[in-house]
Amino acid sequence: MALYSDKVMDHFQNPRNVGKLDDADGVGEVGNAKCGDIMRMYIKVRDGVIVDCKFNTFGCGSAIATSSMATELIKGKPVEEALELSNKAVVEALDGLPAYKLHCSVLAEEAVKAAVKDYYDKNGIAYDPELFKNVENCEHCQE
Ligand code: FES
C-alpha cells in the first residue's frame, strides 16, 4: 500500500487556497517546535461566516496537504464551526496519514484556531480562553 493516499498526494501537489489575504480579518501563525515547520492561515469573515481563507506553509508535504484540506473544510462555514475542526477530521478527509506524520495535521488545526482567535481579538468578540489553551502564535514568524 502506498504510504500516502491519493488525496494527500493531490493536496500536496495541487494545494488549494495557497497565498495571502491582504484584507484578512484574522491571521494565525503557528509553528511546530520539533520540526521547525511553520503555517500561516488567513481568514476573511462576513456575518460570522468564513467567506475566504488562504494559507502559506513552510513545511513538509503532509503539512501542506493538511493545511490545504483544512481551508477547504472551513470555507463557507460559520466561525464557531471552524473552531471545532479537529486534526482528526482533516486526516479523515485526506483518507489518512502515516502515524508518524499525524503531528503535521495538528499544525493545521492550530493554524485555523489561531486565525479565529486573532479575528475575535481584533473585533472585541468575547470567548472562553480555554478554547485556545493549546494554541500559541509562533514567535518566530511574526512579521
Ligand atoms: Fe513538520 Fe510535518 S514534519 S509539520
Looking at this protein, list some descriptive labels.
three-stranded antiparallel sheet; Sufe protein. Chain: A; binds FE2/S2 (inorganic) cluster; 3 strands; alpha+beta; 5 helices; 143 residues
Based on helices, strands and strand pairing, what is the structural class? alpha+beta
- In CATH, what is the class? Alpha Beta
Q: What is the gyration radius calculated from CA atoms?
A: 14 Å
- Biggest sheet descriptor: 3 strands, antiparallel
Per DSSP E runs of 2 or more residues, the count of β-strands stands at: 3
Return the CATH architecture.
Alpha-Beta Complex
Q: What is the CATH third-level topology name?
A: Sufe protein. Chain: A
Number of helices: 5
Summed over residues and divided by their number, the pLDDT gives a mean of 92
Q: What fraction strand?
A: 15-25%
Shape: globular
Can you characterise this structure?
By secondary structure, this protein is of the alpha+beta class. The protein has one domain (about 5-130): Sufe protein. Chain: A (Alpha-Beta Complex). Helix content is about 40%, strand content about 15%. It has helices at about 5-15, 60-75, 80-85, 85-95, 100-120; strands at about 25-30, 40-45, 50-60. A hairpin with a 2-residue loop joins strand 2 (about 40-45) and strand 3 (about 50-60). FE2/S2 (inorganic) cluster (FES) binds near residues 32, 35, 62, 63 and 104.
